[in-house]
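Researcher: Re-running this chain for the archive, since the previous output was lost when a drive failed. Same request as before.
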Amino acid sequence: MRVAFVNSLYPPWSNGGAESTLRGLAEGLVQRGAEVDVYCLTPGVPQRTPMAGVQVHYLPARTAIWPWTEAPPKLGRLLFQLQEVYNPLAERDLHRAWQARRPDVVHVHNFKGFSALAAWRAARRLKLPLVQTLHDYTLVCPRSVMRKAGRNCAHPCLSCRIASAPRRARAGWPDLFTAVSHRMVDLIERGEVRWRKRPLIIRGDNPPAPFIERPSRRLEVVFGYLGRLEPAKGVDILLRALCDYRGPNCRLLIAGAGVASYTAALQELASGTSAEFVGWRDPGGFFQEIDVLVVPSLWEEPLGRVIHEAFKFGVPVIAADIGGMPEIVVPGVNGMLVRPGDVVGLAEAMSRLASDPPAMRLLGEGAQRSAELFERELIHDQYERALRSVLPR
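Model: Regenerated structure tokens:
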């Protein structure tokens, strides 16, 4: 089986959740005997590079701007959004590539910079089986987060419905959709998507990691946050909860980065507390430093990869009861849930768990058992079955 993956970015340009999932899947399928090509975008020189058995095709970005620039010009953003509706130059690149190196199946992940219709049309013109995996809300929301002016959207707004109308109307083109959570699918379906059938749920995977015995006793409880520093992530809620914390001695490690002005505001809010800003950290090493992971998101997180990565290391999770997170964080089993934005509720959850070491230990053991559901080989089995299911009989 020859698989052609399409994703906006691929290492070394990005190591986000979707890219981690895709890289693991691409390399895993190679180990299973498949031929794998990945088509992604580059701001540099287009090239084809072998990487761990995967042929990675870095294609030129046929867009007005490189969309991952922190502050692109307003006109460039407008032109980019028009190209996201349909990008004929990106379609041409993919069509030519697949004519020269015809795959058995096309598997599209994030399509930002390509446009969904470009990838879908290129596969459709060549009569190639097509699978689309959804990692976020871009199918119905150009901003991808279903959030506007600091508030979550119960339904796609008018501007999003207009911008996404062409791809929503053609959502019957892919033979199969997969998605990472039921909640994400529920919200996307509010945008009147015309797909053939409801997407198959396949979660993210955990990379293999050696088991390392966690410290059995610390002088203090260490809470941790790992992720981007931005308002929708609720880091300010976590810092305010730390001010109301009433448990035993604790520290809070905040790992991540964000816009300088917002990061500075968070650091000012943390002044006088036990919070430490430690910058970007490797997840494996970070999870060995903390006792509890806190995910205080305010937006509808599709799943929260950081959660099941923490499970792998036996770290229980206190998460906001929003998005796809309640589908994997089970109170009393592997963590606790609190209402999003509830400072008092989060402080109480942190205090209660820190004051009960036996409960914390049991939740950690439950987290490690829960991690079995995200083992890489299991997730790859599910993806391989999905890909083979659309091949001609």
